[in-house]
Amino acid sequence: MEILAASKVRPGQIAECLSEIGRHDPLIVPPRSGSMVGHFRAALIDNKVVGIGWLYRQGPRAEIDVRVIPKYRRAGVGGALFDALTEGFNGAVHAGCDAGQKAAQKFVESRGFSLIEMLFAQRWDGELSDVPPAFGSVTLDIDGDVMDAVELLDEAYGQSWSAPAFTPADLQREDVDTWFARREDELCGVLVARRSGDSWWVGGLGTRPNLRGQGIGRALLCKTMTLAAQQSRGVVLLVPADSESVLRWSAGLGFWTYRSWAHYYRPRSDAGS
Predict the structure, then answer these.
(1) Residues whose CB falls within 8 Å of the CB of residue 58, separated by 6 or more in sequence, listed in order
(2) Beta pairing class for 61-68 and 48-58
(3) 226 near 129, Cβ under 8 Å?
(4) Cβ contact 141:179 at 8 Å
(5) Residuewise pLDDT in 10s, the chain (273 residues)
(6) Structural domains of the chain, ranges and CATH numbers in brackets
(7) Where are the alpha helices (DSSP H) in the chain?
(8) CA-CA distance, 84 to 87, in Å (whole number)?
């Protein structure tokens, strides 16, 4: 088995690997943070890509994602990718998997991760007539500085463990849309969504803390719902399972829960030293 950097692997091999994983593992979902930009490695056996993994780094924290073709699991592929990705990185690391992936949960728990919270994956599928009305409190456009978007999301999520690990490169991908909400030229909110298959996956949705409760998030999300309906796509959100207020808010917009997502955390390896 070889572990290689992304630059050493043909893009078509990566696509074939992801496609095969998706065909044989119904619990696999698109990456939460929206792309594979970052520290990226591929595992090859007999010149075939059998697993991929990537590490999003954002300051002292990171998010890791490792995926292996089912028939090559339990053969050390995932462990080799994990070790290659985390070599030399001592910061805090987040990881997640579908709550039904018991083997994946055992994998991260055996590497020092602890379950910290459950998320509900929620979906909306509807026609244009099903999009709820949005307040006209802000103007929305898709043109803006990606660094402004990253900074606003950092402010909106604060020190939350679930903060999206976006970089400017993520937001410049062709399959990613970034919507900016402004009021009198002041940036008030941002939504980032990635197009994947039949859905738009919302990877980040935030408003400035002092402007919450004014319909800004609703306006951004309804804009994405409108575009999705025009394209015959759905919209997917990840919502904290213990946040009754957010769950009521998303349910009021027509979203329904269809799966649970487990999130894990491993602290800095030198914590307390």
Answers:
(1) 163, 165, 166, 167
(2) antiparallel
(3) no
(4) yes
(5) 999 987 789 888 988 998 899 888 877 765 544 444 457 899 999 999 999 998 887 666 788 999 999 999 999 999 999 999 999 888 889 898 888 889 999 999 999 999 998 989 899 999 999 999 998 879 999 888 889 988 898 888 876 656 666 777 778 888 889 999 999 889 999 999 988 888 999 988 999 999 988 999 999 999 999 999 999 999 999 888 988 999 999 999 999 999 898 999 999 876 444
(6) 2-119 (3.40.630.30), 122-261 (3.40.630.30)
(7) 11-24, 77-86, 102-109, 146-157, 168-171, 216-230, 244-252
(8) 5
Spell out the residues 6+ positions from residue 167 whose beta carbon is closer than 8 angstroms to its own.
Answer: 37, 38, 56, 58, 150
Residues 65, 37 contacting (CB under 8 angstroms):
no
Give the residue among 259, 265, 238 at the shortest CA–CA distance from 108.
265
Phi and psi dihedrals of 24, rounded to 5?
Answer: -105, -5
Place of tokens 């053969």: 75
CA dihedral 16, 97, 260, 129 (to 10 degrees): -40
Q: What is the rounded CA–CA span in Å between residue 66 and residue 78?
A: 6
- Predicted TM-score of the model (pTM): 0.77
**Residue whose entry in the numeric block shows the structure tokens 């796509």:** 233
153: number of Cβ within 10 Å: 24
Phi, psi of 241 (to 5 degrees): -65, -25
